[in-house]
Amino acid sequence: MRLAFGRLPADPSGTPRPMLGVEVRSEQSVRLPCLIDTGSLRTRMPAWVAEELDIKLDDVPSENIGLGGSVTSAHAVDVAITTVAGTFPTTVWFCRGWHSDFGLLGQEGFLERYRFTLDVNEGWFALQPH
User: Fold this and answer.
1) What distance in Å separates the CA atoms of residue 1 and residue 127, rounded to the nearest whole number?
2) What are the tens digits of pLDDT across the range 34-56?
3) Strands 44-46 and 86-95
4) Rounded to two decimals, what is the model's pTM?
5) Do residues 81 and 87 touch, judged by C-beta distance below 8 A?
């Protein structure tokens, strides 16, 4: 599946990037744009997404990580993600103190499911399920 680059919300540069709209589902669902980030080990979302899903982060496993120049706690929660490429169960790490309006689709939880092809010059990316 070949998709055109998109733009990060509120990015003043407007630089096209490999963006993908996702729906994160638990008992409820939340839609948000996500950056496909090959440098991110885990799939990460801002904590407000967990709040909208009525997920309580206090009692779930966490790790301290560096994100956006600061240290924050990230909490692992099993959810489902739906994209144009399909729906699958995965673990998302919800990050407290990260108030972004987009998520990061990382190696674990997303890219491990696909062969990812990127053509920056032509402004497209492709996802092929394994």
Assistant:
1) 5
2) 999 999 999 999 999 999 999 99
3) parallel
4) 0.93
5) yes
